[in-house]
Amino acid sequence: MSEVIKTVKLEKVYEKGRNKVHALKDVNLSVDKGEYISVRGPSGSGKSTLLHMLGCLDKPTSGLIVVDGMDVTKLNGGTLSEIRRDKIGFIFQSYNLLPVLNAIENVELPMECAGVPKNERRKRAEHLLELVGLSDRANHRPDEMSGGEKQRVAIARALANEPAIILADEPTGNLDSETGEHIVELLGNLNDELGTTIIIVTHDDRIASLAKRKIRLKDGKIVEDT
Asked: Which of 115-119, 177-181, 219-223 has the least mean pLDDT?
């Protein structure tokens, strides 16, 4: 299988006044195309920091990050924005849907930013909403949907530009346990059917256990990789 993410001696240090917080320490990670990985650990273990590094949302203090064959640690802001747009799909705990747009318009938005023609993006958005079981909610705005429905829209949006990688940061954090399991099951099905690489950050051991590969962080270090 081809490698889509690689980190070498990844470090992230935040300075807080006179103190330094080592959020990540010597993280070496290799992720192959099509893997479904959970990253778990206690609060402050570095889970979200790692996801932000892999998603080109923040730069490391030192070390190497390669995303889909590109060393992103040496790239500027504009190029990083293009990588995020074209190669990475994000799913957040708070959904981050635009409240003035309905479901299908929210899914279309990343494609519009990428210059996809209107007819093509509408057709793909319809297909993605069908894929996540929300065809009948296409014209509803976020305030007219349940938390589970909003998260499914967010998943469809994350898939809009056919990214190589999906990064999910606590995607079940605002959902009840049953709905959360349905969302993680949906991500697993998408991984099986589309072959999309999925990395999900969670503090919930039960949700983490549903992934095919499990990584655990403690104090900024990988202490388990099974």
From this structure: 177-181
Tokens of 187: 């991500």
CB 210 within 8 A of CB 221: no
Three-state SS letters, 118-144: HHHHHHHHHHHHHHCCCHHHCCCCHHH
Percent of the chain at pLDDT > 70 equals: 100
Q: Which CATH architecture has domain 34-62+76-225?
A: 3-Layer(aba) Sandwich (3.40)
pLDDT at 26: 96
pLDDT digits 0-9 by tens, 162-218: 998 999 998 888 888 888 888 888 888 889 988 899 999 998 888 888 899 999 999
Closest by CA to 55, choosing from 24, 89, 22, 28, is: 89
DSSP string, 36-94: EEEEE-STTSSHHHHHHHHTTSS--SEEEEEETTEEGGG--HHHHHHHHHHHEEEEETT
Look at residue 223 and tell me whether its pLDDT is greater than 90: yes
DSSP for 178-215, written as a single string: HHHHHHHHHHHHHHHHH--EEEEE-S-HHHHTTSSEEE
From CA 166, how far away is CA 196, in angstroms rounded?
7
CA distances, 89 to each of 56, 86, 146, 200 (Å): 11, 8, 22, 12
